[in-house]
TrEMBL record:
Native species: Bradyrhizobium canariense
Name of the protein: Prolyl 4-hydroxylase alpha subunit Fe(2+) 2OG dioxygenase domain-containing protein
Organism placement in taxonomy: Bacteria, Pseudomonadati, Pseudomonadota, Alphaproteobacteria, Hyphomicrobiales
């Protein structure tokens, strides 16, 4: 549901997805059967990527888990990344 635009409830078909801008105010409803999965992707241009890189040094150590060589959630992926990407 997107409260700013009314009370219509959107339900994609089984195996489908609902894709929308992260700027849209949204609300989810209770799961009554099956499972809900969320895939959060952030797409941005070169200028925004440069800003993000510049801001990385300001992150608290606990917030750096998304950085490739410091991945605390999947450390084996970070090791693989280091082995396959030569600077």
């Amino acid at each position: 549901m997107f409260p700013e635009f009314g009370r219509k409830v959107y339900r994609p078909p089984d195996g489908g997805a609902l894709v929308f801008s992260c700027g849209a105010l949204h609300q989810v409803t209770k799961i009554t059967r099956g499972k809900r999965y969320a895939f959060l992707a952030f797409l941005y241009g070169e200028e925004d990527a440069q800003k993000r890189e510049a801001n990385n040094s300001r992150l608290h150590i606990g917030e750096r888990q998304y950085l490739g060589d410091q991945d605390r959630l999947f450390p084996e992926d970070a090791e693989l990344h280091q082995m396959t990407h030569v600077a």
